[in-house]
């Protein structure tokens, strides 16, 4: 059944600036009819996150804290009491080197956040998913350019964000207000993987069917018909399976047995299988490997400390042994 559905192609310019890529709309189909009302679109769109500065402690934030965690406190805390000869002017930074280093670090963070986003999606932790999504948006907005690898990472974040909002028909991700979240996810899915393996095809076709089914379940049969026309295009090229789906739409049968083989839950299972592949791929990224090493070393130190005998207890045992020898002598 899945192989009977037609394919669609998404076109996204990989040379675009990151802030443009995030909200970039792949191939648009011709208008069908009336627009869907627009509701709280900015909250769901993956190109309007909070500014990058919101993720970084400001000087005012640090002023309200007295702990040593704040970089400003560490640098300026004792300057007033130091002799003048001890105050040294730091060497001028190599601006180009710093910019390149920041770009590399941002790439590491993007990889790590994509990894965290995938885990939250797979485990159904919606609050963690939203928080990580917002952090990823901030990092992406701070990048001046994207490598091919980073572009694919952005696509994965975009895709999961739209799938997570798949049943929210009032969520808008594209400039065309009629495009539903699953339609938007479908366009991005076409850009993620260059090689079309079996899993890719299954997910693609399940999204197509569920983009229609979600509208029908909500009682929006007119919108379901419009979504069908945008996805499957020219009626003369429809397969037998596509014609069957169109008949079900015309019958307004949202719970037809047809959907049991292409259910929303089944679609999510397949997408989580893909997410597992991404997790395996990105589990060896730099930040994850470095963090894992730190945790392992910390656990080893803790274990060694617990196994080391207490000095006082050892001394007491020695004194008791001496006392026993004195009594028996």
From TrEMBL:
GO terms for biological process: negative regulation of DNA replication; negative regulation of telomeric D-loop disassembly; telomere maintenance via telomerase. GO terms for molecular function: ankyrin repeat binding; DNA binding, bending; double-stranded telomeric DNA binding; G-rich strand telomeric DNA binding; microtubule binding; protein homodimerization activity; telomerase activity. Keywords: DNA-binding, Nucleus, Phosphoprotein. Residues 301-329 are annotated as: Disordered. InterPro entries: Telomere_rpt-bd_fac_dimer_dom, Telomere_rpt-bd_fac_dimer_sf, TERF1/2, TRBD-Containing_Protein. The keyword Nucleus applies. GO terms for cellular component: nuclear telomere cap complex. Pfam families: TRF. Residues 304-319 have a biased composition (Polar residues). The keyword Aminoacyl-tRNA synthetase does not apply. Residues 108-299 form the Telomere repeat-binding factor dimerisation domain. This is Telomere repeat-binding factor dimerisation domain-containing protein.
């Amino acid at each position: 059944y899945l192989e009977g559905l037609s394919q669609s192609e998404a076109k996204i310019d990989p040379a675009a600036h990151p802030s443009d890529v995030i909200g970039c709309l792949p191939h648009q189909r011709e208008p069908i009819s009336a627009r869907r009302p627009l509701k709280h679109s900015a909250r769901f769109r993956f190109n309007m996150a909070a500014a990058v500065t919101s993720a970084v402690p400001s000087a005012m934030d640090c002023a309200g804290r007295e702990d040593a965690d704040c970089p400003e406190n560490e640098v300026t805390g004792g300057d007033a009491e130091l002799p003048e000869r001890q105050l040294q002017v730091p060497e001028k930074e190599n601006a180009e080197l710093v910019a390149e280093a920041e770009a590399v670090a941002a790439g590491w963070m993007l990889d790590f956040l994509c990894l965290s986003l995938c885990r939250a999606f797979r485990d159904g932790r919606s609050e963690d998913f939203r928080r990580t999504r917002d952090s990823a948006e901030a990092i992406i907005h701070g990048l001046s350019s994207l490598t091919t690898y980073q572009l694919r990472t952005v696509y994965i974040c975009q895709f999961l964000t739209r799938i997570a909002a798949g049943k929210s028909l009032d969520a808008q991700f594209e400039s065309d207000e009629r495009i539903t979240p699953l339609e938007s996810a479908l366009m991005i899915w076409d850009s993620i993987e260059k090689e079309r393996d079996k899993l890719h095809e299954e997910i693609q076709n399940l999204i197509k069917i569920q983009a229609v089914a979600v509208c029908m379940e909500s009682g929006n049969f007119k919108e379901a018909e419009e979504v069908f026309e945008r996805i499957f295009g020219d009626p003369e090229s429809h397969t037998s399976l596509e014609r069957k789906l169109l008949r079900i739409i015309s019958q307004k049968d949202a719970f037809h047995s047809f959907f049991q083989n292409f259910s929303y839950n089944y679609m999510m299972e397949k997408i989580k299988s893909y997410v597992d592949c991404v997790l395996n791929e990105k589990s060896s990224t730099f930040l994850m490997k470095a963090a894992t090493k730190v945790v392992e070393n910390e656990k080893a130190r803790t274990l060694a400390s617990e196994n080391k005998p207490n000095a006082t207890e050892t001394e007491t045992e020695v004194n008791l042994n001496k006392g026993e020898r004195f009594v028996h002598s």
